[in-house]
Each structure stands twice: as C-alpha cells, then as structure tokens.
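Hi team, as promised in this morning's meeting, here are the two structures we talked about. I've kept the exact order from the run log so nobody has to guess. The first one is mostly here for context; it's the second one we should focus on when we meet again. Sequence first, then the predicted structure tokens.
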Amino acid sequence: VPASKATADRKTRRQRAPQSDATAEAEAVAHSERARALFSQKKHQEALQQFALALAIQRRTLGEHHPDTAGTYNNMAVVCKSQGLDTQALEYYSKALAIQRATVGENHPDTALTYNNMAVVYRRQRAHDQALAHYERALSIQRTVLGEEHAETALTYRNMAEVYRTQQQTEQALDCLQRALAIREKVLGPEHTDTALTLAHMGGLLLMQRGTQDAGRAHLQRARDQLCTALGPDHVHTRWCDQQLTGRVPSTAVCAED
C-alpha cells in the first residue's frame, strides 16, 4: 500500500511537537508499517486492524483533517477494495477525499489519485456514469498539475477508455486510447510494455469496427511483436495478442494491464 505523497515533513513536525506527540506519531508509523507488511502477505484483516490503530492515533494527535489521516483512510480503502468490500472502500475513500480537498486542495496529485481509486471501484460495480465522472475529475486535475504529457494522465485516459468500451461507446474509447498512446510513446517510449498494451487495446477495438479490421490486425501484430520481445512468447499479454489475431477470443475481451 503506497504512502500518501502529501505526508508533511515529519522531521520538522517532530521538532515542533511535544515528546508525547512525537512518541504517538512513531507508534502510528509503526502500526502503518506493520499493516503494509501484513497486506503484502495477504493478511487483510490483520492489516486493516493495524491501520485502524494508526488512524486512531492520528485522529487524536494530528486531527481528522490532516494529510496523514487521509493517507491512512486511503490505505484502509485499498485493503477493503482488495477484499471486494466495495461499499466500505468507497466510504474510506470518501473520507480521504474530503480531507484532501480541505488540506492539500482539489488540484493536487493525491486528490486526483483518490478520484481515480474511487472510479475503479465504481467501474467494478458497473456504475459507469459515476466511474466516468470520477475519472474526468482526476483527469482535469492531472492535466492541470502534472500536464497532458504525463504517465498518470495517460493511465486515466486508458481507464476511461475501458469504461467507454464496456458501454459500447467505441469512438470515445478509441479517442481516449489514442491520447494515451501518444503520451506513452513520448513519455515511456514506443517499446515500453504499457505503450504496447495500449496499442493492443486499440487493435482489439478496431477489430470490432466495420472497415477497420486491417488496421486492428496491424496494431495487434505490432503490439504482439513488442510484447514478445519484452516479455517473451509465453507471457499472458503476448498470448492475448496471438488469440486476438487468430480469432480464438472475442474482440471484446480485454487484456488487463499490470
């Protein structure tokens, strides 16, 4: 579980805080570190308990409206999401979002990340309109703060394309994928696996369109060659392209990104 980027300078805060607060903060950090270790071991309930202990200390010493508190809410949401507890995950994400908007502000990468995370949960619930609304808000922030040509901006375009694809809005999906591809080619390079995966997704969609099947096959072949070089012929992504090219899976099937 990643730590929040908005975490304040702990060294400066420790210099100003009373010893009791510094000790409490150290305890909160220790609980969070144990939680991350437990999460990596897939001990989700134990991880959630450790995050809850960290949260209780942060709320007491830092207050509810503090970036560190928001970070812990976010981490608890990640644990719940990994267990399929979507309602609880959205509740924690909503708490984190409210704090982030009040502290670091609306136009901040952490705020965009929370919008993105909420969109993932809504997408899983097939609440497509809510997913798109949250992706669009994340995208607006990312374009303002990070710029159009940034890997995180490209990822949001790619995620929006998947929502559009699910809704059979192929033109909108292709537009988002084209934007993601242009960014990834420039930022990551044309041989990067994320770039190749975007190309593969475009190919799969073009296969669905009358009159664009040849372009779809060309995209898939190029993506397949890049993925084979980077990952090998037996990797799931390479095999997915092979299956698409030979018609062994429907063109509506999706090759999930790592």
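And here is the second protein, the one for discussion:
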Amino acid sequence: MRPQNVEATVMSLIIHTLIVLFGLNDSSERKITTQSHHIERLTNHTAHLFDWYDWMEHINQRRHYLFQHTTLLEHHSVPAALGFIRIHFVRNDRRRIPWSRLKKNKYQDENYEDLQRAFQEVNFHHPPPEFFLSLPVTQRPFRAHTQGLVHLYPELSKDFSEDSLAHVTVGLEDHPSADLQRCLTAIRLIQKQARTEATPIGASMLRLRLRKMLSLEHVPSHVLQWLIPVCAEMIEQRPAALLGRLVHLEEILFSNKVK
C-alpha cells in the first residue's frame, strides 16, 4: 500500500519550498525568471538556471501526452486500481490468481493490456498500430509512463535535474560580475517582497474554521491553482487532499501568518 499521508506531506513541503524560492504569486516567478535570463546571458549561458515557465510548459506537454496514451487522467489517475488487476484477479470462486495465469483464464479480455489498448483507442479514434503502447504497471505512472513515451515524443526526454537553483538560493554570490550581482540583489528583493506580502493558502478557509470542503478557489494565485493539481497527479491523490495537507503544514510552519 502506498504511504499516502507521507507522500502528501513530502509534496506539500516541496510546494512550500517552491513558494519560498519563487513566490508563486503570479508575479514574483515572472520577475525572477527575467533576472535569471539576464544572469545566463552574463555568464555566456554557462549557468544553466532553472526556468519556471520552461518547466511549466514541459509539464503541460507531458500531461497532454499522458492523458492520451495512459490511464493517467486529469486530476485523477487509476493505474493503481488497474495494477490490482495485474497483481491479483478475483474469480467467481473468490480465489486470487497471479497475473501470469490471467492469459489462460476465461477473463482474458479484462486484463491490463487490453484495458490500456482500449483506453488509447478511445483517445486516438482508431490510431495506427505504432501508437498502441503496452506501458508498465507501476505505482509511479507520471514518471515511468513518460519514459515509455519518449520514442514517440522525444521532447519528453528533457531533463531539468541538471538545472541550477543558485539564483534563488546561494552559489553565485562570489561571481566577479557587478551586473550579475545586481541581478542577484534584485532576485533577493523580489523574494523578500513576496514573503512579506504573501497571502496564506488557508487564510480564508481558516476563517471558516475548515468546516467546508477545501477548494482550489481559495488558493491565492493562478500558478498555485495550476501547481497543486499537477503535484496531486504525481502522487495519485485528489487535489483537495493535497490542499488540505498544504494548509495543515502552513499552520505549523507559518503559524504567525495564518492566525
């Protein structure tokens, strides 16, 4: 069983870290990205800095292809449920049998691969044979299935793991360029202003004492309203569940701002 509470807590911490670094208030992340482009030009593009909007575009592209080819659905995914079919299959006599025997079973039409092919056929409306993919049963479909689609869509192979966060953390302070230092100073001021003016995610919901269902409508920026469902898809949870964990951590980490 997947540790949902642990995954939601870890993902919430990641989101809060991104808020601290980039602001994510529909303004700060744009200003920081502009300054990062200046820094890359000043370093002759030797500093490969993380570009928030480049990453957003890549994630949107990834989601588009995943929703077409796999059982990963927008705001809700079902590979874990279908994985149950692979691991155990309940026959009429309630006996569980391993996946290796499913193809010998009279329920062959209901196996995982048939479900995947049916799903792709519905999405593509009679696609060519090369578009039929047998993607692995996995509890990490967002990454594993993306890798399985790279041969069809090479742009999905783009890797952001080597991009640096030095412009929003530390690492460039010793650079001799005065122009670069001015860019860093501007970024630090943007971050400080974002923290000072930040509206807690749960502010309006806390006034209601959390008696109503959490809603993305209460989230104070459009970029966070985009990010929370995306992160929820990555861990196969409902956006509302992740939002609830975010608010809970916000009360713990920033109690002076949410009272």
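Starting points for discussion:
Residues 74-110 have pLDDT under 50 and may be disordered.
The CA atoms of residues 26 and 221 lie 6 Å apart.
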